[in-house]
Write a structure and sequence with these properties.
mainly alpha; 4-stranded mixed beta sheet
Length: 523
């Protein structure tokens, strides 16, 4: 009998059974999905915008954003400065990765995943892996920024690899958190409110705990800015422990996302336990505050720096610096020699001691002032150099040449300020710009104070006028008058009008009247 019309009979081949995908094919599928999601992530407008902003800002800061001090970087500060900017990129990655995980829910295609051989937890792993290229780009930018600074002739200090990896780890952490949030709260618009809530919460916690050490270090980035650069051995930052904490936390968030997605395998459970242990060890290692030995070392470097420093001779003077800064003594000597060459009397041949000083007793985030030295012929120089630090150091050198020591110069309130300011600023490439930069109010008129490494120099309105006129004249003609009348110019009894007369600067009644009403300490 023939088969019924319209009936189709199919016979499966004998000896052939459908096989499940092997481990290699599963891994290849995860990597393929990760590559696809990485490409999609890079094409998202927020990621593109923040990536361009990040790279543009770093480039502007490296090539155009400085005042000259960037030519003399301190590498243990440069590595920390690479950490905060990647957080903006991390926020964009967090939001876009979260949206990528929820794409199927928004487009109502979740049910189609049931016919695919790839389990949800493997797709979760692929989404986290898609963040790796963004972290690699961040690592490249961080490495380029640090290398660019380290190759400059004026670079000093030593950077820390543990500080440099924070930026890339922040991006990875943000991606893992975005995936976990999508698996725990599968709501399309949860990421932006979560970012705002996290910012408000961290602000409140910081205010309530008043910057407690262990609480601060639970955040992804801890910069500790405010103080002048410290020697590397006085930093006391638990950078390695913090890097371990961020690494463990990133892996822990990944494992939690996988567990929530159903990937409860023995391997995932073991990695979760290991990541939790690494996170806990990192937290324990970074939580203690500064040890007593570090505080003692900071106090020693602040109170008696000569015990920690290396001294070298340049010409007639001695220059003492912390070991990492000894290469900068030649720059200090060049500035001192230029100033001394225009001084008169015994000051032109005085043997000076330039000593580097810091006040590290109050930590990395405290901008403590350095007390003026009472030792005759001793000039203070800080750990920063370049930019406005050059005319400020010049004011300090000229103050000691005129007044004898820094403490006396800080208490000075007379016409000697004219001689000090001319000596200091006439040696600068652009004296008028240096006059503006060295004054606290960025002016070249009226009364103000001129900054120095320790005590500032007070200038009345009339003295400012005289200095301004002197700086407009050829320095060699003024230098001859300064040397000829050095004794009278450096006497506290000499008035501003007399100084102007000796140096050939006419000061009329209008300037004198302005000086009288300026609040100057000079009578």
């Amino acid at each position: 009998m023939s088969a019924p019309t319209g009936t189709i009979t199919r016979t499966a081949p004998t000896g052939v059974e459908p096989s499940a995908p092997g481990p290699e094919s599963r891994t290849a599928a995860i990597l393929a999905l990760a590559r696809f999601e990485a490409r999609e992530l890079l094409l998202q407008i927020p990621v593109l915008a923040f990536l361009a902003l990040y790279i543009g800002y770093v480039g502007w800061r490296m090539f155009f954003g400085g005042d000259g001090s960037e030519d003399f970087p301190v590498l243990q500060d440069i590595d920390r400065s690479t950490q905060s900017t990647p957080m903006l990129l991390g926020i964009a990655v967090f939001v876009c990765v979260n949206r990528a995980v929820l794409r199927s829910r928004r487009q109502s295609t979740d049910q189609h995943f049931d016919i695919l051989p790839m389990e949800p937890w493997r797709r979760t792993v692929a989404h986290v892996l898609s963040v790796l290229p963004m972290a690699a780009i961040t690592a490249f930018v961080v490495g380029f920024e640090y290398t660019w600074a380290a190759l400059k002739p004026g670079a000093v200090g030593h950077g820390s690899p543990a500080e440099l990896v924070v930026g890339p780890l922040v991006v990875l952490l943000a991606g893992a958190l975005g995936v976990l949030l999508a698996r725990v709260i599968p709501v399309g618009f949860i990421a932006p409110p979560f970012v705002i809530g996290a910012f408000v919460l961290t602000t409140l916690v910081s205010a309530l705990t008043q910057g407690t050490h262990w609480v601060s270090w639970l955040g992804p980035v801890v910069q500790d800015v405010g103080a002048d650069p410290f020697p590397s051995d006085l930093l006391g930052r638990p950078a390695a422990w913090h890097a371990l904490y961020l690494t463990g936390l990133t892996v822990l968030l990944l494992c939690l996302a996988v567990l929530v997605s159903g990937g409860r395998t023995r391997l995932v459970t073991s990695v979760t336990a290991l990541a939790l242990a690494a996170t806990a060890v990192g937290v324990a290692g970074q939580s203690p505050g500064d040890p007593a030995s570090l505080n003692a070392a900071r106090t020693k470097a602040s109170v008696s720096p000569q015990r920690e420093q290396t001294c070298v001779r340049h010409g007639r003077s001695t220059y003492c610096a912390f070991p990492e800064w000894t290469g900068r003594t030649a720059d200090w000597a060049a500035s001192v020699d230029r100033i001394q060459s225009r001084a008169g009397g015994s000051a032109g041949g005085e043997r000076m001691t330039v000593r580097q000083r810091i006040d590290a007793r109050y930590g990395l985030d405290s901008d403590a002032a350095i007390a003026p030295s009472t030792t005759p012929g001793t000039v203070t120089v800080g750990t920063r150099w370049g930019g406005n630090r050059l005319p400020e150091f010049a004011v300090g050198v000229a103050s000691v040449l005129v007044a004898g020591d820094e403490k006396t110069a800080g208490e000075m309130c007379d016409a000697r300020a004219v001689t000090i300011m001319w000596l200091a600023l006439s040696t600068q490439p652009d004296p008028m710009t240096s006059l503006r930069n060295v004054r606290l109010d960025d002016s070249i008129e009226g009364s103000a104070v001129a900054l120095a490494p320790t005590s500032p120099v007070s200038m009345s309105a009339q003295q400012t006028t005289v200095v301004r006129e002197l700086l407009r004249q050829p320095h060699y003609s003024v230098a001859a008058k300064v040397k000829a009348h050095w004794t009278e110019l450096t006497s506290p009894k000499t008035s501003t009008a007399r100084v102007a007369e000796l140096l050939g600067v006419p000061v009329g009644g209008k300037a004198a009247a302005a000086d009288k009403g300026s609040g100057s300490c000079e009578e």
